[in-house]
Amino acid sequence: MLSCQGVSFSIANQALLENIHFHLPAGKTLAIVGESGAGKTLLSKLILGLQPEEGRLQGDMLLEGQSLIQYKDKDWQAIRGRLIGRVAQEPLSALNPVKRIEWILIRALRLHSDKRLSKYQCAEKIGALLDQVGLPAEHKRRFPHQLSGGQRQRVLIALAMANNPKLIIADEPSTALDSHTQQQIMTLLKQLQTRLNMTMVFISHDLQMVQAMADHVLVLKHGKIVEQGSVDRIFSAPEHEYTQKLLAPDAMQRITANSLSPLLKVKDLKVKGILHGVSFDLKLGENLGVIGESGAGKSTLAKALLRLMPASGQIAFNKQDWLSLAPKVLRQQRASMQFVFQDTAASFNPRLTIRRSLTDVYRVGNVSESPPSLDVKLANAIQEVGLDSALLDRYPHELSGGQRQRIMIARALILSPKLLILDEPTTALDKLSRKSIITLIQTLQAQRHFSLIVISHDEGLLELLCHQYLVLSGGRQLSFGKWPKQTADQTHEIAPLQVESL
Predict the structure, then answer these.
(1) CATH number at residue 367
(2) pLDDT digits 0-9 by tens, 254-270
(3) Which listed residue, 115, 441, 448, 490, has the most CB atoms within 10 A of its CB?
(4) What three-state secondary structure class fits 308?
């Protein structure tokens, strides 16, 4: 069905992919795994004919025996969405922000239909698609920004499936979903694959999901294949040292809370129509994990705390009445509460380099620095999160999802906040990068002494970072309390808390 024959891709003198070979039979699933920046998403874009214009492509890619290299832009319009469907990694960036979900799906259906579809036929197909991915029919009237991250992810899956393609490229399809919805979506993809004999290229850092979904696994590191084989062989007897590291169990411990003075007290916080009376408190040095299904109101809670949307109730932060602060005073105080957004691509100005974006943070924070001193600080900030300072002069689209995620953490920490709110901070990270980020956050927290509010479906992440939990469902608070103590021979699952909330 799909094969790559010696595919290499470079920009200037930098090789991003080298000598990629694989063959994927019809109806089977190939999982591509590897660290952030390994070339996974780039390879998927090349299969879709979306190569960067300044790059040089060598080798060949075949779909049903036909070379994909020969196709022009006009030819690709009949292939993308019809023969090949794609579930993009960042849903907010992949969906048109000024169009409703209904319009987006109708356009996909009509562009690739052999005959003109009536309004009734489109409505019927859209209803069936939304039902397949577990979304209420009324969501078709919403704009992308009115959906949660998990709901947008499901819209992308519906969009990819709209025309029953022969090949699906799923780039982190379960990234923003809770564990229950993850299982639902993976079951759906498997059922559709079996019924339609659909071939799938599955990119993920979730190795448990890879083991459940894939027939064949390809391991990438720095744009090169280090190992490939059947899923059973890779998981039972990995040969390469890098693969062994990816599969090795984590051995990390939760940090101890050094709680001092009260930092944040929230009482009866409400956001009209979304959030219905949330209350909790947090001391300086403590961390809170926010749990709930997709659409439970977790990201809305974060935005309300940051005063990015209207809210009522009481928020006492850093000994101030946070909701009553005047705009000028609030602007001066924002440095003490920072946010790492869920969608990495939508969180940067695409026209600014990373250096310029980070420099603007210093300027907003009224930090006066000479150019040489500022350059040193920027280099240190990006190196703190495990990245090369050479990335400062790149644009956001030139970085992998995992690299952007780490730069967002660096950007948030520049102003030394007392409270850092992380919305799915390890969403786009592979296992090794995830471990590095967790260690980094723990180290920085011990050094700088700030508090965290962590919103995540990653149960292991919350177990390691958080001392308290807050369970939300349907915009309502179900429980709030201290996290069970972790012992050397026992870990406490978050799943029961979350399942009970559902």
Answers:
(1) 3.40.50.300
(2) 666 666 788 999 999 99
(3) 441
(4) coil
